[in-house]
Amino acid sequence: MTIDLTRLDSLTQDELWDEQAATTYDTPGEGMSSPEVLDPTVDRLVGLAAGGPALELAVGTGRVAIPLARRGVPVTGIEASRPMLDQLAQTEGSDAVTAVHGDMATTRVDGEFSLVYLVFNTIANLLTQEAQVECFRNAAAHLSPGGRFVIELWVPDLRGVSPTAPAQVFAVEDGYVGLDAIDTATQRLMSHHVRFDPKARGPERREARIGFTPHRYVWPSELDLMARLAGMELESRHADWAGAPFTSQSGSHVSVYRLP
């Protein structure tokens, strides 16, 4: 798919997360799907669910929902991208997850949940503060009294951003380079994903596939205020799913909000 940079904000979730993105999203046993990443995530969510049902906002291909369901937690998922839902339906174990097509900020499903969760920076896919606030309100509306809303999100590092250096490289891996172009006035960020075959030789080595994903970054304190607007309070914040202390040097956080 060819993306016109002038209309990235107006692209639908089906266009941003199309069939190609859905079929290449999972990395079984590696990266975000490695046991080192996934096991602590699922362990923590099982504990936070406290024996009740869970709702995943932006369930995607079921990376977290399926192993969580295997641990005995009933899971419902909301997902805006139909290609991602199609990929979820083809994944072993997906029959244990109830998947609903819809927007994580507005779509309601039946029932109450002891846990609502939103992982892997996905709240930043909502591109306005208003939409992010509505996401918190939607989460709170699905929670039973005493229920928890969990967000995993990166912490923006703006120390290297300036008018003369408006972009940051966030990943350099074999066959992949990622960089973020950042607008500090609007808290908007455009991730550029450059993928290529590092083993290619000759003219084809110069060919690369470039993808773009728009985000609105959110500070932890801003999230806390959104939670209060939705009637929730911060219960805990750690640097990762294993419970490491959150400090000024942390590059991400797992924040748990609780409905009274």
Automatic annotation (TrEMBL):
Which BP terms from GO are recorded?
A: methylation
Any idea which GO molecular function terms this record carries?
A: methyltransferase activity
Q: In what residue span(s) does the Methyltransferase domain sit?
A: 55-147
Q: Which UniProt keywords apply?
A: Methyltransferase, Transferase
Would the keyword Cytoplasm be found if you checked this record's keyword annotation?
A: no
Q: Which Pfam families match?
A: Methyltransf_25
The answer to keyword Methyltransferase applying to this record is: yes
Annotated protein name in UniProt: Methyltransferase
